[in-house]
Each structure stands twice: as structure tokens, then as C-alpha cells.
Design goal:
The complex is a heterodimer.
Chain A lengths: L11 H8 L1 H13 L6 H22 L4 H18 L9 H10 L4 H6 L1 H17 L5 H11 L6 H14 L6 H9 L3 H7 L10 H9 L13 E9 L13 E4 L4 E5 L2 E8 L2 E6 L18 E2 L4 E4 L2 E4 L8 E5 L2 E5 L5 E8 L4
Antiparallel strand pairs in A: 1-11, 2-3, 3-4, 4-5, 6-7, 7-8, 9-10, 10-11
Chain B lengths: L2 H4 L41 H16 L15 E5 L4 E5 L7 H12 L2 E5 L6 H11 L4 H7 L1 E2 L6 H5 E3 L1 H6 L8 E3 L7 E5 L6 H13 L1 E4 L2 E4 L4 E6 L12 H5 L3 E4 L8 H10 L15 H12 L5 H11 L17 H7 L3 H6 L20 H17 L7 H11 L25 H18 L7 H10 L7 H19 L6 H27 L1
Parallel strand pairs in B: 3-10, 3-11, 4-7, 7-10
Antiparallel strand pairs in B: 1-2, 5-6, 8-9
Helix pairs in contact in B: 2-3, 3-15, 11-15, 12-17, 15-16, 16-17, 18-20, 19-20
């Protein structure tokens, strides 16, 4: 069953498979008996395309770890091929791409902690691929670029967390910034898309990051109100909402309520997300007043935090809520949530 | 089961707790998902009580086929069904419940005590002990080489080590003799298989290691690290090839019976045979504890609180058993221990105790009381149980569930007590776990009947005393002395002296003496 014929006999994977043939074949047979329904030819193809490059890289960097890495990647592959996350015809190209293009660039951390690195990155690719609006390819490319500057598996995965936020997982901003604070300076710059030798001191970057609408490394722009991509949508078309949502604010967070379900809305310069809230109903419920100082005319002229702008997309919107420099608006006949950023100046 | 499925550890929390009111997305969730990612070594990741629970569930799901829930917890009233002529009750617990056979050895690992696994041959006693060793970081090879196998020819040297022949010849004094100590002495998990096959003389050497954590040969001493002990035996009555010396038996902290094999799970057994995978060889690294983690677990367990009202119930329970009125004329010596030390016929103790309701008197059901060691161990295991369930303080049910296993060999039953003659109670003569639990339930019932939560003069006076003597004037001290004397007078008026009252009387005597000494000092100072 093993794809010996597809692999070059002198390849690192082929030799590792030969050494562990009985054990790995037993694993595969037992996995099938336990109900993992993977296609053997898909597994074979994945081993060649998705596992062999990583094992080859590990063989060059840490030859004594080849067998351990092979065993871990093989075991994970059984499950992932059965799920159709990897291999030909996979449902999640981002996960497949993580194995084919990213893992081979991570030889040292993979050799150091194969289970931790491979499984974590697989799960991360899955989450990014599943999040509407998140940019999994950007994350894969970014992590591949910074990997060389990471001291070990721990730093690599921490960098991955920061990059995931920057790749559009806006709800992870607060938590990712805590991780960012613990990164060494060069890596901290690199994860923000800056050169590791960029001149901005850490404090300056920290201040820049305090404004969710300011892209670090760019000059601050003038204060302005601008539309941000809308979030939400009808559940039947892939969105989260069954009914047109109403938006609320508890001062710090934006909530969207759809019948009995509550969601949190996050947005910043890197992306927008709406996610089911971890803890049920928001503290501020129906009928909360409109944000102080925010007014919206029928034609879409919005006044918010001392700025006024005509935003035709907002024409006809009714419900308003704001948290910080982010304002949300909804229409009675729409499942989408319109977002406006108050960026620049004293946000 | 496939080898890789052995590597699966629960990703969901094993004791889901109500979420905090503050909703927040954690970037750590990015790496959680269907692919099992082990946390980084040394990273602040999983809380250790959660890791302990994960270890428990891994063992019950993949390693030991023990589909039993004899350690029962309930959130609301459980469903009960009655079977058979004896009216045996089968309960469906309404909260997370556990198999004692897996739980107790795991808790023993956490608190580093001594666990005796008893049961017929081939019931997995050694396997569970070896698993505990693997969980604490030892390799299978180290463990197997470290197991001490009890057998009639075992000598002290076999157990502890031999002097190096060259140093024996060259030494002029004992101190110069070098001993090649057995490697197992330095292990943090010690396994002794069939300890009741060890000759009596060698048992004494084992006792020193178990009790005092050191080994001595030729005047040389090896200090052993604190360890979790697992001893196995086919017989829990202390019999075997050699009678187990009482001091060694007394050092056992918890007794766990190997439960039978439920034949409905033969399919699982067949799969194990066919896969030829032994669970102890595939323990996932994410549930293996480092020595530092085990130290931390131990410290965290000790920090679990015992609420005062619950402690009071435990005190009341423990107070029933020691008192024996016929044993002496001096009240302090009226204990079963006095009687035992005198070598008199134990049946005589029953005859002298006339006038008391021997059905209601819980002390009549035992031949001994609880030692300090037994009480300490009980408290430690109750804390461990609460910790395992993720609680910051011990609950009533934690005490109720743990006491039977800790006191299993500590409370010597008096099977001739009239209580066992009651309908349906004969089985308690054999099922000591249920018996001790029933004793605790009866004790709590009596505690409630006496309304001791609300009306406990000794507790009041003790609390008053514990506020300190500094600053008390002579008048106040005299008032307190009078209060003690009045209480004793009231009690002495025709009231039968039962175990709990015995301890209360002595407590009041103690308080009286302390106040009296203080009064004498006040007068001297004046």
C-alpha cells in the first residue's frame, strides 16, 4: 500500500518508510479498521507531494530526526487524508498548501517538535481557511518568510499567531498583541511586515498599534471616516445570520444579535470578522441608545467622533452602535453589517 | 485500537466549567483543532489538574478497560434501580463519575503516597502501576527493571543492594564500605509486586524505605526521594506466602481493588490482542508529567481548602471509634488501643459496654480507632479528589468517596456487632468500601440529629479560646471556666458516653486546664 513506487528510492522519505515499514503499515491498517476511510492512492499522492518535501528538508537540517518526523507526519496524514483536508481533490487547499509549501521551509522547528509544529500549523491553516475574509495564503507566505528568524518552534508558532491576526483574524487582535509583546525585536518587526532592521523603535510601533486603523510602518493619515468591508450575511448564503441582525455596544465591544444568538464584531486595518460570542447574550441588550455624538442622515451623511462624511452605502441604515473607533450600522432588510472606521488623527 | 488513536488526548476540557462573563477570543485557539498538538514543554499551557484529568481519561479510554463508575458524583437526584433479592441498588450518577481502579492510583501518584492494589492474578494490577510510572516520565525499560518482585528467597541485599567486594576487603571500618545500591531506590515511582511474598525479615527493610525514605546497609545510608508507591497483592487480608507485618500494612495509605472484567467488553480485548499494541508503550507525551510538574501538583493539592463545617463533620465521624469505656478508669486511657495493648480478649470489650445502644453506637462496629496517620492521609486524599475535580475546596462528596478507600485497611471491622445483623447488612461484612461509606452517612445523620452545625458548645468554646488569652482579665477567665464546668456537669447527668462525647469531654478538660494555668499566671503576675 505504501507508495514506494512513486518515491525515489534514495529519497529521505523512501528510506524512512522502508525502515519503519512494518510499524507504519500496521498503523495504516489499524486506522482503516478503526473507521478512518482514506483513499490509499490519495494518501500515496499526499505522501509524495506533501510529506516528502518536508522530510527531505529535515534530512538536510537534522538527519537524526528523520524517522521521528516521518512517523508523526505519517500518522497525521492518515487522519487528514481521511478528512480530505490534504491530498488530491482536498476540500481545504490552504491546509494542503501548508504541508506542501510551508512545512519544507520549517525543517528545524519541525525536527525540534514535529507533533507540535505540524499539528498546530495544520489547525491554524484550517481556521484561516474557514474564516470568511481571512487570507490563508498571505499567512502561509508570511510565516515562511519569518521562519528563518525564529529561534525555535515556540517562537515560530508565536509568530504564526501574530501573522494570523494580520491575515484577517481581527478577533484575535488583543490576544495576538500580547504575544507580539513577547517577541524579540527583529521578529516583532518582521511579523508586522517591516524589515527586521526597520528603524522604528519598539515603543513607536506599540503606539502605532494602539490605533486599530493605522498600518504600522506607514505614515499616519489625516483623520477620516471611511467604509470598511461589510461583514455578516444570510446563513443560507454562507453568512452567520438567520435574521437581519441588530447591533449593540457595551462600550468596549460591538455585538450583533440575531434572535437568540449573539455575535461579536471585530475590525481593524487588517480585516474584519463576526463570530459567535463565547458567552451568550451581550450585557447591553435590545433598545440600547444610539452611540453618543453619532448621527446618520437619510442620505448617508454620518457624523461620528467629531468628523462628518457622506457615505452613500449608509443611506437608509437604521441601527447604529459604536465601540472605540469602529461604528456599525444595519438595515432592516439586510443581513449585512456595515462598518465605518474613524481613522487617523486622534482616533 | 490503532496506535495513532492511542495518541489522542481529549482536546475539550475534561471538566467544562461555566465560562467567565468576559468574552474574549484567545489566539492560542488558532492551534487547537482536530490535529492533536502537544503543548510546548515548559510553556504555561494546560493547568495541571486538567492534565491529570486528561491522563485519567486517556487511561480509561485507551489503556485499561475499566468501564466502571464506582466513585459516584451527582448534580441532582440520580436515577436508582433495585435488583435481586438483596435489593441491590444500581445508581445512574448524574455528574462526572470515575472508576476507582484508575482514579486512586492516579491520585496516589499526585500525592506521592502508598497504594496497595489487590485482586486475583491477571487483573492488571502491575499494568496500572507501570502506567503510573510512565506518566511520571520513566521509560518502560527503567520501570520494568525497577519493579521489585516479591518472592520467598528475596533477601535484604536483593532489595537494597550489596557492598562492593573490593571495599569490603579493604575497609577497616564500617564507614569505608561502599554499597552498590539498587537503582530502584532512587526512583520516584516504586513498584513492589506481590509484597506479601517477601520474607518477614526483608519486609522490615522494605518498611524502612517505605516509612522513612531511606535504606540502610552496613551502616551506610541511602536517602531516597519522595516517591509514589504501588504494591500489589492477591490478598488484602495481609496473608500470602508470608504474613505481612502490621507496621508495613499500616504504612499503606490507600487500598484499591482490581475490579472484574466486564465480558461485554471482550471485543475491546480482542482488538488489543490483534493490534499487538500495549498501551504502556504508546502513552501520549502530552500527559506525561515532569518531576517539577508533579511537585507543583502536590503543592496545589495541599493548597485545596477544607471548609470548616465539613472538617467538623469529619472530626465527628472520626470521634466515634476510639472510645471504649471498659478499657480503663482514667478517662484518657479509655480507648480501644489500651484494650488491645493489654492483650485481653476483644470480645470482652463488648461485654463491658452495657447500657449503650449498640446499634446506634457506630464505635461498636470497629475494633480500633483512627490513627493520626489515617486522619492525615484521609485529608490529603480528600484534597486530591477535590483538586482532580477542579475545585478549590473539598466537598462533602469528596470526603464520602475517598474515606472508604483510605480507611479500608485502617478501620478494623467488628463483624460481630449487632448492626450487621440488620436486614440486608450482611454484605457490609465483606464490602468494606460500602460499609465505611455507610458509617460516614450514619455519622452525618447523627450529626444533623444533634444539630451540631448550629448548637455545638465545644466548637464555640474552642473558637473563643483560639482568639487568644492575651488581654483576658481574671473575671473573664473565671467565667469561661465556669461555663466549661457547667457543660460537663450537664453532660455527666445520666448521659451515656459515646465516642464523640468522649473527645468533647477531653477537649473541655484541655480548655479548662489551659484557662486554669492562665489564671494562675495572672494571679502570680498580680
Amino acid at each position: 500500500m505504501l507508495p514506494m513506487a512513486l518515491l525515489h528510492p534514495d529519497s529521505a522519505l523512501a528510506r524512512a518508510l522502508a525502515r519503519g515499514r512494518d510499524r507504519l503499515n500496521a498503523r495504516a491498517a489499524l486506522a482503516r479498521r478503526a473507521g478512518l476511510a482514506f483513499d490509499p492512492s490519495a494518501l500515496a499522492r499526499h505522501l509524495v507531494d506533501g510529506v516528502a518535501p518536508a522530510v527531505e528538508a529535515v534530512a538536510a537540517a537534522a538527519p537524526d530526526r528523520v524517522d521521528a518526523v516521518t512517523e508523526v507526519l505519517f500518522a497525521l496524514s492518515l487522519d487528514l487524508v481521511a478528512r480530505e483536508w490534504v491530498g488530491p481533490g482536498c476540500r481545504l487547499p490552504a491546509v494542503d498548501a501548508a504541508w506542501r509549501t510551508l512545512l519544507p521551509r520549517l525543517a528545524r522547528p519541525l525536527a525540534e517538535a514535529p507533533q507540535w509544529v505540524a499539528a498546530s500549523l495544520t489547525n491554524a491553516a484550517f481556521h484561516l481557511a474557514s474564516e470568511p475574509g481571512a487570507r490563508a495564503e498571505e499567512w502561509l507566505a508570511g510565516l515562511g518568510e519569518v521562519a528563518g528568524g525564529c529561534a525555535g518552534a515556540g517562537e515560530l508558532l508565536a509568530a504564526g499567531q501574530v501573522l494570523a491576526w494580520r491575515a484577517g483574524m481581527a478577533h484575535l487582535r488583543a490576544s495576538a498583541l500580547e504575544v507580539w509583546e513577547r517577541l524579540p525585536d527583529p521578529l516583532a518587526r518582521a511579523t508586522l511586515g517591516l524589515s527586521p532592521d526597520a528603524p522604528e523603535p519598539r515603543d513607536a510601533l506599540r503606539r502605532a498599534l494602539a490605533d486599530p486603523w493605522h498600518i504600522p510602518g506607514t505614515p499616519p493619515g489625516p483623520a477620516a471616516l471611511r467604509m470598511v468591508p461589510a461583514v455578516g450575511g444570510f446563513r443560507g448564503f454562507g453568512g452567520p445570520f438567520l435574521a437581519p441582525p441588530r447591533v449593540h455596544s457595551d462600550g468596549a465591544r460591538l455585538w450583533a444579535v440575531d434572535g437568540d444568538d449573539a455575535y461579536l464584531v471585530h475590525a481593524d486595518c487588517f480585516g474584519e470578522t463576526v463570530r459567535r460570542a463565547p458567552a451568550g447574550q451581550p450585557p447591553v441588550l435590545r433598545g440600547s441608545p444610539a452611540p453618543r455624538g453619532a448621527t446618520l442622515e437619510l442620505d448617508g451623511t454620518l457624523t461620528f467622533r467629531g468628523l462628518t462624511a457622506r457615505l452613500p452605502e449608509l443611506a437608509g441604515a437604521r441601527g447604529l452602535a459604536a465601540a472605540g473607533a469602529l461604528l456599525a450600522a444595519t438595515r432592516r432588510d439586510s443581513h449585512r453589517i456595515l462598518l465605518v472606521a474613524r481613522s487617523g488623527g486622534n482616533a | 485500537m490503532p496506535r495513532d488513536r492511542f495518541q489522542q488526548v481529549s482536546q475539550a476540557p475534561t471538566r467544562p466549567a461555566p465560562r467567565s462573563a468576559e468574552p474574549r477570543f484567545d489566539v492560542a485557539d488558532l492551534y487547537r483543532g482536530p490535529a492533536a498538538a502537544e503543548p510546548a514543554a515548559g510553556a504555561a499551557g494546560l493547568p495541571l489538574d486538567e492534565k491529570l484529568r486528561q491522563a485519567y481519561f486517556w487511561i480509561t479510554n485507551h489503556a485499561i478497560i475499566s468501564p466502571f463508575y464506582d466513585v459516584e458524583y451527582n448534580e441532582g437526584p440520580p436515577q436508582r434501580f433495585t435488583f435481586g433479592d438483596q435489593g441491590v441498588e444500581v445508581t445512574l450518577p448524574s455528574d462526572q463519575s470515575y472508576s476507582s481502579y484508575v482514579l486512586l492510583p492516579l491520585l496516589n501518584l499526585a500525592v506521592r503516597r502508598r497504594c496497595l492494589l489487590v485482586g486475583g492474578p491477571g487483573r492488571g494490577k502491575t499494568t496500572i502501576a507501570v502506567l503510573m510510572g510512565v506518566l511520571s516520565g520513566y521509560s518502560l525499560q527503567e520501570l520494568k527493571r525497577g519493579i521489585q518482585h516479591g518472592q520467598p528467597q528475596m533477601t535484604i541485599s536483593d532489595l537494597l543492594g550489596n557492598p562492593l567486594p573490593s571495599s569490603l576487603l579493604a575497609a577497616r571500618e564500617m564507614e569505608e564500605v561502599k554499597v552498590a545500591w539498587r537503582r530502584w531506590l532512587g526512583m520516584r515511582v516504586k513498584i513492589v509486586d506481590e509484597y506479601n511474598r517477601i520474607p518477614t525479615r526483608t519486609q522490615s527493610a522494605l518498611l524502612t524505605v517505605m516509612a522513612d525514605d531511606y535504606a540502610e546497609v552496613f551502616d551506610q545510608v541511602y536517602e531516597c526521594p519522595r516517591a509514589a508507591w504501588y504494591l500489589t497483592a492477591n490478598d488484602d487480608a495481609g496473608g500470602g506466602t508470608y504474613q505481612v507485618i502490621e507496621a508495613l500494612r499500616d504504612r499503606i495509605d490507600v487500598v484499591v481493588k482490581a475490579l472484574h472484567f466486564n465480558t461485554r467488553f471482550l471485543g475491546d480485548l480482542l482488538a488489543r490482542v490483534e493490534e499487538d499494541v500495549r498501551p504502556e508503550e504508546v502513552v501520549p507525551p502530552q500527559i506525561v508529567f515532569t518531576p517539577e510538574e508533579l511537585d507543583r501538583v502536590h503543592q496545589e493539592i495541599l493548597a485545596v481548602e477544607v471548609p470548616a463545617p465539613l472538617r467538623r463533620r469529619f472530626e465527628f465521624f472520626a470521634s466515634h471509634f476510639e472510645f471504649l469505656e471498659p478499657a480503663a478508669r482514667q478517662v484518657e486511657y479509655q480507648t480501644k488501643d489500651t484494650f488491645k495493648l493489654s492483650g485481653l480478649d476483644p470480645a470482652a470489650q463488648a461485654r463491658g459496654d452495657e447500657g449503650k445502644d449498640r446499634l446506634a453506637d457506630l464505635g461498636a462496629q470497629t475494633r480500633n480507632g483512627l490513627s493520626v496517620r489515617a486522619l492525615t492521609t484521609s485529608l490529603v486524599f480528600c484534597k486530591a479528589m477535590a483538586y482532580f475535580r477542579g475545585a478549590a475546596e473539598v466537598s462533602f462528596e469528596d470526603v464520602r468517596q475517598m474515606l472508604p478507600f483510605v480507611l479500608h485497611d485502617k478501620l478494623a471491622q467488628n463483624p460481630d456487632a449487632p448492626w450487621f445483623e440488620g436486614q440486608g447488612r450482611a454484605a457490609y461484612r465483606v464490602d468494606r468500601v460500602s460499609w465505611i461509606r455507610a458509617l460516614f452517612d450514619l455519622s452525618c445523620k447523627e450529626y444533623d440529629r444533634l444539630n451540631l452545625d448550629r448548637d455545638d458548645p465545644v466548637a464555640r468554646m474552642t473558637a473563643e479560646f483560639e482568639r487568644g488569652l492575651d488581654g483576658l482579665d481574671e473575671k473573664t477567665v473565671r467565667q469561661r471556666l465556669v461555663a466549661i464546668e457547667r457543660t460537663l456537669k450537664e453532660w455527666s447527668g445520666g448521659r451515656k458516653l459515646y465516642g464523640h462525647l468522649f473527645d468533647d469531654v477531653l477537649n473541655l478538660k484541655y480548655l479548662h486546664q489551659r484557662y486554669a494555668n492562665y489564671l494562675r499566671w495572672l494571679k502570680w503576675k498580680a
